[in-house]
Amino acid sequence: MNRRTYKKITWILIINLSISFILFSLNVSSLVEEIDVKFGESPIIDGQVDSYIKEWENANKIQVNLVDLPVKLWVLQNDENLYISLQFDLLLKYHSSNEFMALLISNSSSENPENFIDAKIIQFNNISNNEFEYLDYHIDNKGFSNDTFNNGRGAASLNEITSIYEFSIPIGPNNKINESEDVLLDYEANYAFNITYGEFASYPQGIKKSEIFLININSPPTKQKNLTNIALFIILITFFAILGILYGFYLYKIYRLKDIIDKSRH
Amino acid sequence: MPKISKKQKISKLEKNQEYDDRFAYKSIKMSSGLGVVFYILSLLLNTEIITIIIYQNIFFKIIDIIVRVIVILLFFLFTIISLGNYKDLIGKPLDWKDILLLLGFSLIQTILNLLVFLFTFMGLFLILFYFYLVQER
User: Fold this and answer.
1) For residue A173, what is the domain's CATH number?
2) B25 domain-assigned
3) Which of A109, A38, A43 is nearest to A76 (CA)?
4) CB under 8 Å to A261, separation ≥6 — which residues?
5) Which of A27, A121, A260, B43 has the highest Cβ tally under 10 A?
6) What is residue A28's predicted lDDT score, i.e. its pLDDT?
7) A114-158: per-residue pLDDT in tens?
8) pLDDT over 50 (residue A87)
9) Does residue B32 have a pLDDT over 80?
């Protein structure tokens, strides 16, 4: 190999490595956890998870970390609303009386700060008495401002060391919102959500921990799909019933086999 | 060296046969019992009447699929052992029809989940291949 060829190969390698590095960096910078929303019965937004009525049963349940705070994140949707529940355990002495949980919503899947234009906040006024309020803000150059109309609902409670925050946010094209104040969450699209925990009622100054996630909102399942699932389930149950009967008959034959063996011996 | 009489030989053979039959019958009972247990487990898991996963992440999903596949494979394994011994006791060999029927019964259990179907299919193939290798020729 002559010197020129060697030089060429070196340059090709350097260019290749640089391109790979750039692509890898781009990929790393968008390494945000993606959450698929599941369909299910709408939960009651009261800051309580009632297991007797199987609330949040079908939710996509994942464990996330807001910096060093492990949080259970449950996401559920129906045709009209997106439901998000955040739960975490924290000793009473570490709770702030005016703590809050907020969902800062991007108008797309972009994680750029200027794309987060909507904020749904559950603000405790006095956490020891479980007094809270749900706030709907929009974010612009001036900072956080109150919406003219509250879109969505929220509730929270603190039971011993467990805090439960529940949000309900309208979704779908039929949802009438003021687009300058709220993000229209449409079906078959994903949006960046900044889950934020803060210690006092001032935004964004009170924010202590936050983490961005991508939430994929799905279209309502078509009736056809539902029918297919029901049909498959019925087929499967019928099959299991037939298999059960056949197995029962087989067990009976095994039982009878002992008599046949004994008879043939005698 | 004392000679064994024909009668004694027959009696010994009969005793051996009786012992084999008893052993085979015990094996049929045990493996069909285990087959029933895995049938019930498969009914609960593969119809999704109960789910073993709490958090929806990839790790728990993999565990869920593995458990479902193992339950079906164990159902197939114990049922085929039981059926094979049963057929042997009544003097008929286990034929391809029986095996195909059991294969069908095992695969239908997977119709709600494509991944469970694929892994079960592979598992059943491996079990059958193993039986093919170890069978007497």
Assistant:
1) 2.60.40.1190
2) no
3) A38
4) B21, B25, B89
5) A121
6) 43
7) 899 999 999 999 888 889 999 999 998 888 998 988 889 999 999
8) yes
9) yes
Range of the domain at A1: 1-31
Q: Which residues contact A101 (CB under 8 A, 6 or more apart)?
A: A86, A121, A122, A156, A163, A165, A195, A196, A197, A198
pLDDT digits (tens, 9 = 90+) for B46-87: 988 877 665 555 677 788 899 999 999 999 999 999 999 898
Nearest-CA neighbor of A232 among B77, B110, B58, B21? B110
Q: Do A169 and A203 belong together in one domain?
A: yes
User: B90 vs A257: CB contact, 8 Å cut-off?
Assistant: yes
Per the structure, the complete domain to which residue B84 belongs is given by: 30-134
Which residues of A lie inside 8 Å of B (Cβ-Cβ)?
A: 38, 60-63, 232-233, 235-237, 239-240, 243-244, 247, 250-251, 253-254, 257-258, 260-261, 265
Report the number of distinct structural domains present in chain B: 1
* B112 lies in some domain: yes
Say whether both A86 and A181 belong to one domain: yes
| pLDDT, position A265 | 63
Chain A hits for B86, CB-CB cut-off 8 Å, are: 250, 253-254, 257
